[in-house]
């Protein structure tokens, strides 16, 4: 089985348009795992949003590590893969992806890096 993982900095998962775009990404690319970064979702909204976006998939978030809104959501097709969180902080989730038959496994990280405008300019060579 081929493992297909994608990560997307969505910059807000609250609108129906962005939720549909994630679903489209998952379906068109036949993904097993999808990490969504910079979700900016409120804790009380996560169940509703993630249930809609990931449908019958399993999903985990790092909302308990965040000061304000959720930063990272990792969804996995639980018919094919299990994604176990090994470590999480407000900026990163380190996970083990394993097929349900436990024949294949891989490690992956979903990380969100909050930067100021000055740091972004420095990182991208802008002055």
- CATH architecture classification name: 4-Layer Sandwich
SSE order: EHEHEEEEEH
CATH class term: Alpha Beta
Oligomer: single chain
In round numbers, the mean pLDDT is 90
- Here the CATH topology equals Deoxyribonuclease I, Chain A
CATH homologous superfamily label? Endonuclease/exonuclease/phosphatase
**How many helices?**
3
Helical content class: 10-25%
Q: What is the domain total for the residues?
A: 1
The low-confidence parts are none
Strand order of the largest sheet: 1-2-4-3
Distance between the termini: 46 Å
Task: Indicate the proportion of strand residues.
Answer: 35-45%
Approximate shape: globular
Label the structural class.
Answer: alpha+beta
Our Rg estimate from Cα atoms comes to: 15 Å
Main sheet attributes: strand count, strand direction, barrel closure: 4 strands, mixed
User: What is the tally of beta strands?
Assistant: 7
GO molecular function, one term: RNA-directed DNA polymerase activity
Protein name: RNA-directed DNA polymerase, eukaryota, Reverse transcriptase zinc-binding domain protein
InterPro entries: Endo/exonu/phosph_ase_sf
Keywords: Nucleotidyltransferase, RNA-directed DNA polymerase, Transferase
Write a structural description:
This protein is of the alpha+beta class. It has one domain: Deoxyribonuclease I, Chain A (4-Layer Sandwich). It is built from three helices and seven strands. β6 and β7 form a beta hairpin. α1 packs parallel to α2. Keywords: Nucleotidyltransferase, RNA-directed DNA polymerase, Transferase. This is RNA-directed DNA polymerase, eukaryota, Reverse transcriptase zinc-binding domain protein. GO terms for molecular function: RNA-directed DNA polymerase activity. InterPro entries: Endo/exonu/phosph_ase_sf.
């Amino acid at each position: 089985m081929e493992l297909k993982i994608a990560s997307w900095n969505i910059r807000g998962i609250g609108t129906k348009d962005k939720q549909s775009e994630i679903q489209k990404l998952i379906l068109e690319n036949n993904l097993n795992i999808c990490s969504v970064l910079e979700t900016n979702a409120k804790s009380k909204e996560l169940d509703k949003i993630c249930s809609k976006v990931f449908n019958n998939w399993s999903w985990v978030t790092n909302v308990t590590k965040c000061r304000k809104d959720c930063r990272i959501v990792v969804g996995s097709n639980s018919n094919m893969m299990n994604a176990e969180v090994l470590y999480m902080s407000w900026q990163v989730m380190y996970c083990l992806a394993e097929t349900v038959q436990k024949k294949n496994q891989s490690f992956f990280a979903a990380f969100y890096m909050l930067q100021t405008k000055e740091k972004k300019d420095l990182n991208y060579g802008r002055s």
